[in-house]
Amino acid sequence: MKQLASLTRRDFLACAMAAMGTAALAGCGSASSSTGTSTSASTTSASQDTYTLVKDGQLTIASDLANPPLDYTDTSTNEPTGFEVELMQAIGEKLGLTSVYLSPVKFDTIIPTIKQGGTADVGVSNFTITDERKQEIDFTDPYLDSNQGLVTAKTSTKTTQDDLNSTDVKVAVQAGTTGESWVEENLPNATLVSLDDPVVALTGVQSGLYDAAVADLPVVQYLVNNSFTDCQVSIEIPTGEQYGIVVSKGNPALTSAINDALAQLDEEGTLKDLKTKWFGSDL
Amino acid sequence: MSHMHENAMTRGESHHTRRLPLLALALSAALVLVATMALLPVSALAMTTNKATARPNEDGGSGVIGAMDTRLTWEGTVGGDEEVSSITLSLPEGATFDHASTRITVLDGLNRTSIDGTATSSGNSVDVQFSEGIPAGSLVRLEITNMQFPADGGDYVVSGSYTTADGQSHALDDSAAITVIANTPLQAAVSWLDAQPWVAAWNSNPFLGMFFKPQLLLTSFASLFPGWLVCLGIVLACYPFAIVLGLAFAMLKTSRHKVLRAIAICYINLLRGTPLFLQIYIMFFGLPMVGINIDNNVLGVIVMAVNSSAYLAEIFRAGIQSIPQGQYEAAASLGMNGFQTMTSIILPQTVRRVIPTVTSDFITSYKDTSLLSSVGVMELMMFSKNLTTTSGNITPYMAAAIYYLIVTLPLIKVVGIIENNIARSERGGGPRPKRRAVAGASQQASKAEEELAASAEVSHAETAKPAADVFAALSAPFVSHPTVDLGGVADGE
């Protein structure tokens, strides 16, 4: 028994070393594959006109698909749908690529994923362009103007910013969003609860678990009108933020290619048509 | 900076059509302003300061720390008949806007107005020149990223001035004070790490920098600590309830009555057959809907206890049924009734057999508290998720992993020791007083085992009294021989 125990300990060490080695190798592997798929891997600085793609011929998109009507999974077809999804299809067509959505990932992991590279080419999940995020990744030109909305239950008595800035108030947000930092700065006394997506946040508000939820206005308006009819948008927070597509800093050619496509779509009126289709008006 | 402005320029052009009416409005407003400026006192029309806030930059905390990059957000509304062409914001001495970048947002209600500008920062003030006049009634937001407050902390107000289109300069109202805390030792340590060349070299490796960034590891340990306490608190609070519930349902399941058995089977199968994640969602979102509002942490304890109890019930049932029939017969022959048989013969032996499995289940429960983060319980995963969000780095998750391992690794070791001990004593071996001395010399018995053996002697002495049955039962697995007085049946297995 004794000998066996010490043996396993040694084995464990060996295993741990092997595991670490594999992990490091895996890291190298994914890093090289992200650059290796392009036509010229070694000349990343020289190749200004060619962008790199995770998979040739397709634009791989990471999103949390939890922000109706911008990006969500259609329950009847089980396919991603929404304003952003159709926009990305249009951009894909302009670039001559097939737009492929990965399975939904958590919002707060998208920027690290894009920064690391190797999994997805772009992150599209109503990312507000902020200077903080710009230090990590590149943004394309904005494709939509937006604001924040604060949702409370219709029966709630705490509906103003003053009412809600109190220690016994719980405000739910989606982790890593501009809504989260708005609550941090403007409701400093309230308890901040960071959740995976706005749908969970509103579920909590409807059930009374949280007093309020803050998320992007188009999203909460859609949710309040369609699913969470016991809730209301109590405060429309004018932030005037703009959504951009997240691209790795190591892939500037893709950013400019998408910018060109966006400009074309704007000129042709496709962008406006999409906004009218999904929001009823050109926001 | 330049990149940002290029973006802003293309944005401005794409919305050209929308600008025209605004321009006309702005021009007419300017004319009215010039005409009225001579007649009316300025104060009645002045631009108002709505708010000034700073983004918390304390890792895992909510404080604004001085001498560290943060983001200042200033909001003001252009007064009645004014048109604003530039704004200057200033902070007290010690604050710095150097290296900061400024994002300008002009809003008419909820609609964005395409007005851009250039910001020039010098020391503790920043001057923003707008590309065109901002019309009356507009909301102006300036977000100044990577600015710093003075190092020594305190309350700071943002003051400043603005100029109108006609070139007049007016003072801005002071904002509400922003509370800034002085730099903490932890942050000082992080700054020290920042300056080390080996840290830079380490971080330049994408794998090491993303998973084991030393600076973040340090701050993560500090800020994850409260989350770790919550995890431990929840699992320690839930486990006694889980054991009691589990034992009760184990009894029901081994009962002779069909109905009682059915109840136990339903309970255990429902809970074992559904994911804990689902149970958490049902309890956390369901109970408030029927008007039951329980504190998140308490509800967390309840869910974990109920879930664990189902697994424990099965463990206890298996334990009870593993006791040979002969034990029941022997107890009966001594004239014991069913209750006595259970409490003084069967359960003490069961406890020693199930301790390893129960400990494993405890480890599982401890790890499963992480699922509670999805419903907003402020435990380890929640804290590390927040940190990863703000840092865009995986290191906080690694720090959380270490916090989990601190508890689980020793427990896994303990399970191993107990299993060995039980296996030996069930074979009839184990340290007897005489043999132990020999065994200690030849087999290098581990320290832990010696301690266990010592505790066995202690409990041997203490459990002479029948009143100490419970203690005896609990310490049974650490004892090489059953210590309860079984009237000579003890070695009968």
TrEMBL record, chain A:
InterPro entries to which the protein is assigned, alphabetical: Iontro_rcpt_C, SBP_3_CS, Solute-binding_3/MltF_N, TAT_signal
Cleaved signal peptide residues: 1-26
Database matches in CDD domains: PBP2_peptides_like
Main localization (coarse): other
Domain Solute-binding protein family 3/N-terminal per the UniProt entry, residue ranges: 58-282
Domain Ionotropic glutamate receptor C-terminal: 58-281
SMART domains: PBPb (SM00062), PBPe (SM00079)
Coiled coil segments of this chain: none
UniProt KW keywords: Signal
Alphabetized Gene3D superfamilies for the sequence: Periplasmic binding protein-like II
Subcellular location: Cell envelope
Family of this protein: Belongs to the bacterial solute-binding protein 3 family.
Protein name in the entry: Amino acid ABC transporter substrate-binding protein
Classification of source organism: Bacteria, Bacillati, Actinomycetota, Coriobacteriia, Coriobacteriales
